[in-house]
Design brief:
Blueprint lengths: L13 E4 L3 E4 L5 E9 L13 H8 L7 E6 L10 E2 L2 E9 L18 H29 L4 H26 L18 H29 L3 H29 L4 H23 L7 H4 L4 H16 L5
Antiparallel strand pairs: 1-2, 3-6, 4-6, 5-6
Helix pairs in contact: 2-3, 3-5, 4-5, 4-6, 4-8, 6-8
C-alpha cells in the first residue's frame, strides 16, 4: 500500500504506520485512555484527527505501559466532537502486550504492520520476560524461598531466551524488525509489591498467555509458527504454574490488608485483559498466526476464567 501520511487515514477507524500506510484500529492487545483539549483547539484536524507529535504530548500522562499508536477526538452520533465539561475528549490508543511476564518499567516498541510486526512484538515481550524472571529469582532467594522455587524462576529465564531467539527468527523471516524493549531501572521492592506484580503478570497474563499459545499451536496455518507455539505453550504452562506457586509462597507472608490488595490487583488485571480482548478485530495475518477471532478469544478467556481464576473474573 501507499506509504502516505497520518493525514491519509480515517482517524476514527485507522492509524498510520510509517513507511507502510493505514492499519485498522483495534487488535487483541490494544487499549484506550482519555486526555482532554480545550474545545475548538487548533490541534484538532478533520474528523477529529490529531498529528502523531501532538498525540505523544497529549497522551503522555495517560500511558498505562503501552506503545502509543494514535489519538483522536471521537465523533458522537450527530457527527460532533465528544465533549466533557467544556473540553474535547481525546482517545489515546495504545498497543499492549496481552500476555507474558512484563517487568516494571517495560514499554512496548513502536507498532509494526503485518505478520512480521506481530511476531516482532512477541519477540519483544519474550525478551522482556528474561530480566523479569531473573529478578524474580533473586527476590525469592532474598525472601528465603525454597531453592526449588528459585531454580524454576532461573530456568524460566533461560526458556524465555530461547523463545526470544525463536520469535526473532520468525519475525525477521517475515519482514519484521525486532527492537529491544525499553526497561526501567530496578529498585528494592517490598513483598507486597512483588506479590502484586506476580498476581498481575504471572497469575493473569502468563496464565492466559499459556492458553493462547496452546490455541495458536493448533490453529496457526503457518506450519513454522505451529511448531514454535507448541514448544512455547509447554514452557509457558510451566511458567504459569510457577506463578501460582510463587503466589502461595508470598501470600503467606502478607498481612490481611496486603493480601486483600494483591487479590484486588489480580481481579482488576483479569477485567483489564477482558477489556483489551473486547477491542479486537480480525486482521489479515490472524489465520497464519492462529490468533483467535474476537468471539473465540472471548471463549478462551471464559475457559481460563472458569477453570483457573474462578469467581475473580466476575
Amino acid at each position: 500500500p501507499d506509504a502516505g501520511s497520518w493525514a491519509d487515514c480515517d482517524p476514527q477507524t485507522q492509524y498510520f504506520v510509517g513507511g507502510y500506510g493505514c492499519e485498522p484500529l483495534g487488535g487483541g492487545c490494544s487499549g484506550v485512555t482519555e486526555a482532554y483539549l480545550p474545545q475548538g483547539s487548533p490541534l484538532i484536524g478533520p474528523r477529529g484527527g490529531i498529528s502523531p507529535d501532538d498525540c505523544r504530548s497529549l497522551c503522555s500522562t495517560a500511558n498505562q505501559g503501552g506503545s502509543l499508536i494514535q489519538c483522536h477526538v471521537p465523533l458522537d452520533a450527530s457527527g460532533s466532537y465528544a465533549t466533557d465539561g467544556g473540553a474535547d475528549v481525546v482517545e489515546c490508543y495504545w498497543q499492549y502486550g496481552c500476555t507474558g511476564r512484563q517487568p516494571e518499567g517495560f514499554a512496548m516498541p513502536e507498532a509494526q504492520p503485518g505478520l512480521g510486526g506481530y511476531l516482532a512484538s512477541m519477540a519483544a515481550l519474550e525478551a522482556a520476560s528474561v530480566p523479569a524472571f531473573r529478578r524474580l529469582a533473586r527476590e525469592l532467594s532474598a525472601l528465603g524461598a525454597p531453592e526449588e522455587l528459585c531454580a524454576r524462576a532461573r530456568q524460566a529465564a533461560l526458556e524465555e531466551i530461547d523463545h526470544t531467539r525463536t520469535m526473532r527468527a520468525l519475525a525477521e523471516g517475515r519482514g519484521g524488525i525486532v527492537v529491544a524493549p525499553e526497561l526501567g531501572p530496578e529498585r528494592l521492592r517490598s513483598t507486597r509489591e512483588l506479590a502484586v506484580e506476580n498476581a498481575v503478570e504471572g497469575c493473569v497474563r502468563e496464565t492466559f498467555g499459556a492458553a493462547l499459545a496452546l490455541w495458536q499451536s493448533r490453529a496457526a496455518r503457518d506450519p513454522e509458527l505451529r511448531q514454535a507455539f507448541a514448544r512455547i505453550a509447554e514452557d509457558e504452562a510451566s511458567h504459569a504454574e510457577l506463578s501460582w506457586d510463587v503466589a502461595a509462597f508470598l501470600e503467606e507472608r502478607l498481612t490481611a490488608e496486603e493480601l486483600e490488595a494483591t487479590q484486588a490487583a489480580r481481579a482488576a488485571a483479569i477485567r483489564e485483559l477482558e477489556g483489551q480482548l473486547a477491542l479486537g478485530q480480525p486482521l489479515a495475518y490472524d489465520d497464519a498466526a492462529g490468533i483467535p477471532p474476537p468471539a473465540l478469544a472471548r471463549a478462551l478467556f471464559e475457559s481460563v476464567a472458569s477453570e483457573v481464576w474462578g469467581g475473580l473474573a466476575s
